[in-house]
Amino acid sequence: MDKIAKALDKLLTTDPIAGAAPAGQAKGGGGKSKTVKLPAKILRDNKVVSALPPKYMDRYNMLRTQVLHRTRSQGKNVLMVTSAMPNEGATLTAINLAISMAKDFNQYCLLVDTHLREPVINQYLGFKADKGLIDYLNSDTPIFDLIVYPDIKALTILPAGKPTTESTELLGSPKMLNLVQEMKERYPDRYVIFNCPPLLSFPDALVFSTYVDGVILVVEEGETKMADLNRALHLLGDTNVVGLVLNKVKEEDQS
Ligand SMILES: Nc1ncnc2c1ncn2[C@@H]1O[C@H](COP(=O)(O)OP(=O)(O)O)[C@@H](O)[C@H]1O
Ligand SMILES: [Mg+2]
Question: Which single residue of 23, 32, 199, 201 has CA 20 to 30 Å from 10?
Fold first, then answer.
């Protein structure tokens, strides 16, 4: 526990923005943490909100406001984003919500890729991440060496590393639970957002839901089946569902 605490302390004493290096390059003496400049074209292509026109940020800011409203006063700062089935937009929602918090609201935020089977957060953001959370869980690589600082003020990212099929065991391990508790307790004014796999595809998200303060469930308009949504909600049981996000809403519905 002490080791984790030290690593997390270091995180907050490092300036995440000063002298951002080109994507994927390590920077700074001593520590192996990375600062990366996120490539605008990749962000745009992947619909990452910081590279899109302001109207898109406005939508995520609405989500952010609702999430903060439902969590902040109760000290619920550790949240996961998931969906019933793949492709409904959980990962993009996790990324864009974190960016809305950090970039637009200056809310310090750590985005963690807990989709250990198919980690894509680093791909969506355009940087390489051969190592990540998996290496901390499997081989004790210090968290500080795995954290990435993008050129977005107040945002830090813990990528997953190379995909693994042992994700349920890793996410369900006491080491993972300790890490989440440590993240929560040491920095109650910071939000931690976990990108989780779909609830109905693997046990991972259900296991993980017992660690967090709340779940954000993404629903794809016109695609998510009511039966699947009900199954997902049933699985979550008493877990605090902070909200359902209706994603991929058609333009004409949004005026
Ligand atoms: N609001 C949205 N508008 C347009 N495309 C979206 C939206 N949300 C997600 N997508 C696209 O849908 C695909 C799946 O998104 P992703 O976030 O990876 O889903 P999941 O994590 O649920 O599998 C990606 O190609 C992504 O760009
Ligand atoms: Mg995903």
Answer: 23
Q: How many A from CA of 92 to the centre of ligand 1? A: 6
- Closest by alpha carbon to 176, among 148, 203, 206, 211? 211
User: For residue 252, what pLDDT is reported?
Assistant: 65
* Mean pLDDT value across residues 55-83: 96
**Ligand 1 contact, 117 CB (< 6 A):** no
Distance of CA 197 from the midpoint of ligand 2 (Å): 6
Cβ atoms of 196 and 214 within 8 Å: the answer is no
DSSP per position, 4-60? HHHHHHHHHHS-SSTTPPSTT-B-SSSS--EEEPPPHHHHHHTT-GGGS-HHHHHHH
Architecture of the 2-16+56-250 domain: 3-Layer(aba) Sandwich (3.40)
pLDDT band at 6 (very low <50, low <70, confident <90, very high): low
Q: Measured from the CA of 85, which atom of ligand 1 is nearest?
A: 22
Domain spans, the chain: 2-16+56-250
CA of 91 to the centre of ligand 1 (A): 7
pLDDT higher than 50, residue 50? yes
Quick one: pLDDT at residue 223? Answer: 96
Give the number of other Cβ atoms within 10 Å of residue 28's Cβ: 15
